[in-house]
Specification:
2 copies of one chain form a homodimer. By secondary structure, chain A is of the alpha+beta class. Chain A has an 8-stranded mixed beta sheet, with helices on both faces.
Chain lengths: ~525, ~525
């Protein structure tokens, strides 16, 4: 029984110069070609200078084309490897994260999503592992996908460089399923390196954002990214599930629209057969029409487009909107608290269901745990003005908050109430869209609200005007061509209940929940004014 | 106690000429203005010629602006009205579907989504209901939203014209929350009329499709439409839930792309700042990149765009794609049966969870129940060719099926196997996209499949080529500029497991599951070459 606590110095690899990398690449290619040749001509083997006892136990596998071969082979997931499998033989298909052959041994790390395990290929008569096979394994290019037949072996001491620490794999077959190119545009170790300012590794190689995004397929393989996009899927699922339980109906609204309905600025134009159309900046008008069409409570998840030339950490030209709209009986706070409760439920369930993913993100990025109150904190606009004033920032009662104001306010709220999530209610009417319902007691104030996470806005919402004549009046006041929104206004002439709602940016919620610094980290293939690839 | 089995002859209304409708509208408006005046000047009441004992119990309500009024008023849903509430007083907010005042009584039908209940407003000293109030109620425009305070009363005989048949409401307060215009562009009764060819009502007024779509907010209020879009939300939810349970991760793929990657035809162009871009025809390349990025099993739900000038019953220029992609170990049938199992699970759960909605759709449209086998039927292409040949249609082994061939085949399969759902596997390679994996044993055949519902294709899928060199070769064979798909091909140079997947059109699935005849019936705001509004 081979017990090995020895760990290959994986990180040491990073320093490899480009030249050395090229050399290694060539060697690996050569070796692979040789192996491929062997796999294709197993009879030819005898011609070699040395006999290979591992013949037929390693090489490059034929392209998997669903021929029916190996159909009854059962594979074990890396995350399921543990001491209860000690001594058992398993097939594992995984990426070769690193490998290093030294004499008669090759240590490698296999990776599946966020899970890693150590693989040892060691010259052995008993296991029929030859020197050639060890060398072959050492030359497999990083990030290749391989099939390994191996014995699960309990280790004497924990393998600290891997997520599976109590066992390692001692291999007796190694097959390359899909080879990665020898020279990778970025190294996963570099892309995955912790970004803590107090870290001794702070000076080591990192990968800049454009390189990451240009090579997103590789970048997405880091444990943090594997975790981030699973959390994002979770946010989406929880948003829908929580609302579905509250009686909301999911709808789908068109992205191609005939008129730039919401003001006209920042809208992408599409050629539409012999005419042209626009990409919707939000599902606003459509979800309100769904309310007028008796769907009572609706939500929609879908692409939202903004032709805004904003090159900031928090703007995208295409993002995923989580939108909802709900009729209420007497007060828009019925809706406000439904939305806020959806957030607190979501935060609670994220902590419960994604603890390990959140921890994985935390291993690369310094993340303060997200704090929130239940029920959530609701402040009114004048309270915010007052808090800012006390902190030395003076705003008029009809001014909007600037982004720095919002950030400062977030810090003040955190200090005072110990929450990263709060609602700011009763915005000045002047700074909100034309369809926002004014406050019944103060014509300068509106029945509208924003919600914030870590001092950044993630939702904007309001009671909407459901009276068509008043809506016309407000649209005209805002200088909007009412002919362009005729179908929208007409909806309210067909009878419409009072309603309110809001729109959320999915990528912002995930970014701020995790405390990340750039929205491109939470968009799988981000789009901004300068990027439409890959 | 008032017990009333008498039903207003709701349908009789339909014959009303335009002139009469105008007259009625004017009267209603006049009456409403009067009531509004009353509501605004309640003191002025005494000046009227007759004393009104209902003073303060009816009228037009002030626009609901979240003033705090009536915040503790509890409303009862129409669907929850039943004999267990007999004798209780309730507030109900609902649409006035119809109303007819006759002397001292006004019969009305209140509607909430698919549920309807009869309302009786009857002159009564005890309930303080005056002649004026009865007249006012009779003049409220159809489709207005009203608040009613009423007693729940068990009826002597079932109210056949309503979904709530055992009780009716006897009202003592009536308030207009949101008035509909007097002249509606279509009548809900007409839009909801059963479309059975053997129906005695077949000759009565129907609403044509363009009128419906032009006035979609009204059209969507029919019980069938209320049900259809709830079923559609269910299909979407079940698709996601079933796949999530199987370990799939939801992803979001960009709709704005830099190159018309899949052939170049039928793609919409978008102006993108100083350059131009395209709208994605499918998430194909991105979901494959997610597989290369180690997400293992992914799905995505989102808008898909086709600039195809097809004006048929089953084409839209924008639809909702349910896409999935999954890595497999040795055979693409692992994926094929995962997808097929997702469908049968979905069909089973739709029947369980949406029985009442399916029945509601069936009340308007003649729908044969959807039949399927579990496990589902899988045929191979040559079997289909043979079945068609026996039915007199001769196809070559490398020909694709035309739409009429597919329909005929659907009927043959239904007759032979009694299923509305089946899989057709092993399409000719020549008729599939460049990235389709050929069959290992026959170069003219591919590892690809379509799935059909009631003889129409709802999914197209295949094993994809994961070997970059072979993919290049196949792309060149198809005359595709490999420079335009460089990032896509590069993904496979970074190591990629064998994988397969498919794309589903949501609207088609709902249309065919319900046996509807036009895809515009299952798209809330459909887009086709001639329609981008509302």
């Amino acid at each position: 029984m081979v017990v090995s606590g020895e760990q290959p110095t994986v990180e040491g690899d990073t320093g490899t110069s480009k030249k050395a990398a090229k050399k290694a690449a060539k060697a690996a290619e050569k070796q692979q070609k040789k192996a491929e040749h062997k796999a294709a001509n197993p009879q030819g083997q005898a011609e070699g200078p040395e006999e290979d006892i591992s013949e037929g136990r390693y090489g490059v596998m034929k392209m998997i084309q669903s021929s029916g071969e190996h159909q009854d082979r059962v594979y074990t997931n890396v995350k399921d490897l543990g001491v209860k499998l000690d001594g058992k033989n398993v097939w594992v298909r995984a990426r070769l994260q690193t490998s290093r052959a030294k004499g008669k041994q090759c240590f490698a790390v296999l990776r599946q999503s966020c899970s890693t395990v150590q693989l040892l290929i060691s010259v052995s008569e008993e296991k029929k592992v030859s020197k050639q096979m060890v060398k072959f394994t050492g030359n497999i290019t990083k990030e290749s996908i391989i099939d390994v037949y191996a014995t699960v072996v309990k280790t004497a001491s924990p393998v600290e460089s891997c997520s599976i620490q109590q066992v390692e794999l001692v291999g007796s077959e190694v097959w390359v399923v899909s080879a990665a190119r020898a020279q990778l545009p970025l190294q996963i170790e570099d892309a995955a390196r912790p970004e803590r300012s107090d870290d001794p590794e702070a000076l080591r190689i990192r990968v800049n954002q454009d390189t990451r995004l240009d090579n997103r397929v590789l970048d997405l393989r880091t444990p943090a990214n594997q975790a981030i996009f699973r959390i994002e899927a979770g946010v989406c699922r929880l948003f829908r599930d929580i609302l579905t339980k509250k009686g909301f109906v999911e709808i789908h609204t068109p992205k191609i629209i005939s008129a730039a309905s919401e003001g006209g600025a920042n809208v992408f134009t599409v050629s539409y057969f012999k005419s042209s159309a626009y990409l919707a900046q939000s599902p606003q008008l459509y979800k309100q029409m769904a309310i007028a069409a008796d769907f009572d409570k609706v939500f929609t998840v879908g692409a939202v487009f903004r032709a805004e030339d904003s090159n900031t950490h928090r703007h995208l030209t295409e993002f995923v909107g989580l939108d909802l709209e709900m009729s209420f009986t007497s007060h828009y706070h019925e809706v406000l608290f439904t939305i806020a409760g959806t957030f607190t439920d979501m935060f609670t369930q994220l902590q419960e269901q994604f603890a390990s993913e959140i921890a994985t993100v935390g291993q690369q990025f310094r993340v303060e745990p997200f704090k929130f109150l239940d029920p959530p904190l609701r402040l009114e606009f004048p309270q915010a003005i007052q808090m800012l004033k006390e902190a030395g920032v003076t705003l008029g009662e009809e001014d909007d908050l600037s982004t720095p104001d919002e950030k400062l306010l977030g810090r003040l709220v955190k200090a005072k109430y110990d929450t990263d999530f709060y609602i700011l209610d009763k915005y000045p009417l002047a700074v909100r869209p034309f369809y926002t319902m004014p406050d019944p007691n103060n014509p300068k104030v509106s029945n509208s609200y924003d919600m914030f996470m870590r001092g950044e806005e993630i939702l904007s919402g309001a009671q909407r005007i459901h009276d068509p004549d008043f809506l016309m009046e407000r649209a005209k006041h805002h200088g909007i061509d009412v002919n362009k929104i005729a179908a929208y206004i007409e909806s309210f002439r067909l009878g419409c209940p009072p309603h309110a709602g809001g729109g959320i940016g999915l990528e912002r919620v995930v970014m701020l929940y995790l405390g990340l610094d750039n929205i491109r980290k939470t968009s799988m293939f981000p789009r901004d004014p300068k990027r439409v690839t890959p």
